[in-house]
Amino acid sequence: MKKTIKKQSKQAKIKLSKVCLTIVLAGLSTTSTLSFAVKDADNSTSAANQLTYPIVDSNQTACFGLTDTLSTCPAKGDDGFGQDSQYQGFAASYSNNGNGTVTDNNTQLMWVQTIDTNGDGEITVKDKMTYDDAMDYAKNLKLAGYADWRIPDIKELYSLMMFDGEDPSGLSAKGNYALVPFIDNSYFGYNSGDTDAGERLIDSQYLSRTKYVSTTMRADETVFGVNFIDGRIKGYGVTMPRGAEKTFYVLAVRGNTDYGVNQLVDNNNSTITDTATKLTWQKGDSERGMDWNSALQYCENLTLAGSRDWRLPNAKELQSIVDYTRSPDTTDSASIDSLFDTTSIINEAEKIDYANYWSSSTHLNLHGGQNAAYLAFGRSLGNMNGNWIDVHGAGAQRSDPKTGDASQFSEGHGPQGDAIRINNYVRCVTDDKTEFVQQPATVEREAVIFTLTGNEAAIAGQRGTVNRQGVATQKGNNRQQGMNSQQGRDPFTMLDTNGDGKLSKQEARGPLANDFDRIDVNADGYISQSELPKKHPRN
Predict the structure, then answer these.
(1) Which residues, including other chains, have CB under 8 Å from residue 535's CB and lie 6 or more apart?
(2) Alpha-carbon dihedral 138, 142, 146, 148, rounded to 10 degrees
(3) Fold of 491-531
(4) Per residue in 61-74, pLDDT tens?
(5) How far apart are the C-alpha atoms of 359 and 232, rounded to whole Å?
(6) Run of H or E including 178
(7) Residue 470 contacts by C-beta under 8 Å, 6 or more apart in sequence?
(8) Using CA atoms, how far apart are residues 121 and 117, in angstroms rounded to an integer?
(9) Neighbouring C-alpha atoms within 13 Å toward the C-beta of 365
(10) Residue 489 has pLDDT above 70, yes or no
(11) Residues with Cβ < 8 Å from 8, sequence gap 6 or more?
């Protein structure tokens, strides 16, 4: 049984700057959908309420090939079979409480309905806050008879993500654009960046209270946020390059303080169960990278712990096992609990690191469905001025092309030179709550029209120049010169303190020490150059 989320009235309570709430479907590059699992919604939320950490379904019900939306979903054995839309979990369900709050009926989290924090009836840059100001705002907030509001952590905030949204990155030409956001804007206040105030269209970053345990960019203190217009988790420097503090939209939350807290149990059969989510995970991983179709097939064909009922997790399920207290630079590990076995790699900066992991969720953009979302369990690298550095943080969620030649992106892609790998790693999941649906039913979700005046191109030009590879550079900024002095040096040579051409257990550090026995394939008590993890493969 399908349940349609209540659509927003044309007489919206929140006036969105630069946004016309006239809803149209023409002009969308693909069908965007809002659909609930084919089962009774009340039973679904009742089952979710039995868990402390229910993962709300990604809301993706369209099937995608390597580029476009498919009219018929793949059958078993076909490329693309087992993708996000064919496995439906706890359907999104919200209640407008009529007092400025919205309750998520699955997670039992109560949210402030609007991001109009200054109460002037509009959502503009004036509503955005710095990290410290946001903490004070939530601490002092009294709404609907409650005074226990907080800024959400990154897992609470990501629970609102909907992967039937469409990423508009790159839009700059003057005109009207119909876009579906990655959040249900019929319940929650939403806007793009305030282009009238000099922001980009995609500056719709919502703040979490989760700070990165390491640093990004130029050793910047970093906080994670969710961008509900481009559909990503990134780490953002608390301070901007020129010294001003970064500001964000703010959506306060209360209730269910156990949400996002994993309760992991090693089943001693190469699987781990999270009793908080009731998801059971492959303890190890694929130990090699592969493209998206191969990742789907790997999980569909996996036999483990006597079960063949494995699948590639959607992005929200995969994010649930990120441990944001861990990172390669602070714990010498992937950002995942130590119960899991995680393969180490040598990254683009020639450093020992951990891989990105594929999800089954297509990341739709203006060019179609050629990208799929991944979670970075190691550093989320970008090539800035010729240096590979951690630009988004371990635990970021981004997207890669589903197939192709990664060598075409040898210097990264986009304004921050994001590393493009294509061959990502895989960790499979199973549970008894998710339904397989060969051909999911779809219902169109409302689009929002954004009007651009053509100033976006000028704004982009003010932020820096772009080289032939599309990597942004800042004129006159020499702060990166001299950083990463070890970059490019062979990690083996750096660790081989006695110069004997091999590493003992005493010399090994970080991931090499953690994985010593596995890497030492000939079991002679040393790691040789030939036994080192291979560089991340280029297609």
Answers:
(1) 345, 346, 350
(2) 30
(3) Recoverin; domain 1 (1.10.238)
(4) 999 999 999 999 99
(5) 13
(6) strand 175-179
(7) 412, 413, 414, 415, 417
(8) 9
(9) 20
(10) no
(11) 21, 185, 186, 446
Distance CA 272, CA 321 (A): 11
Burial class of 147 by CB neighbour count within 10 A (0 to 12, 13 to 18, 19+): exposed
Among 204-213, 362-371, 465-474, the range scoring the smallest mean pLDDT is: 465-474
* Structure-token pair, residue 408: 């075409």
Give residue 95's Cα distance to chain centre.
25
What average pLDDT does this structure show over 230-237? 97
Token pair of 193, please?
């960046």
**Domains of the chain: which residue ranges?**
264-430, 491-531
Residues counted in the chain = 539
Please say if the pLDDT value at position 345 is more than 70: yes
* Helices vs. strands in the chain: H and E counts, helices first: 10, 29
pLDDT digits (tens, 9 = 90+) for 272-317: 999 999 999 999 999 999 999 999 999 999 999 999 999 999 999 9
Give the whole-angstrom CA distance, residue 410 versus residue 79: 27
Kindly list the distances between the CA atom of residue 178 and the CA atoms of 15, 27, 183, 425, 450, in Å, as whole numbers in the listed order: 17, 6, 15, 34, 6
132: buried, middle or exposed (CB in 10 Å: 19+, 13-18, 0-12)? exposed
Determine which helix (DSSP H) or strand (DSSP E) holds 457, and give its type and residue range: helix 455-462
How far from each other are the two terminal CA atoms of the chain, in whole angstroms?
43
Instruction: Name all contacts of 134-137 with Cβ < 8 Å and 24+ positions apart.
Output: 134/207, 134/248, 134/250, 135/209, 137/250, 137/252
Torsion angle of alpha carbons 384, 387, 391, 397, nearest 10°?
100
Q: Are 292 and 403 in contact (CB under 8 A)?
A: yes
Q: Could you tell me which residues are beta bridge partners of residue 112?
A: 101
Neighbouring C-beta atoms of residue 335, cutoff 10 Å: 28
Q: Which residue has the tokens 């700057």?
A: 17
**404 Cβ neighbours under 8 A, 6+ residues apart:** 291, 422, 539
**3-state SS class at 473:** strand
Q: Strand 448-452: give its sheet, edge to edge.
A: 19-20, 448-452, 175-179
Instruction: Kindly tell me the burial class for residue 136, based on how many C-beta atoms sit within 10 Å of its own C-beta (0-12, 13-18, 19 or more).
Output: exposed
CB neighbour class for 485 (10 Å; exposed up to 12, middle 13-18, buried from 19): exposed
DSSP string, 286-302: -SS-B-HHHHHHHHHT-
d(CA 264, CA 336): 11
Residue at 528: amino acid letter: S
- Map tokens 């130590």 to a residue: 338
CA dihedral 141→144→150→155, nearest 10 degrees, is -150
Residues 6 or more apart whose CB falls under 8 angstroms from that of 203 comprise: 192, 193, 194
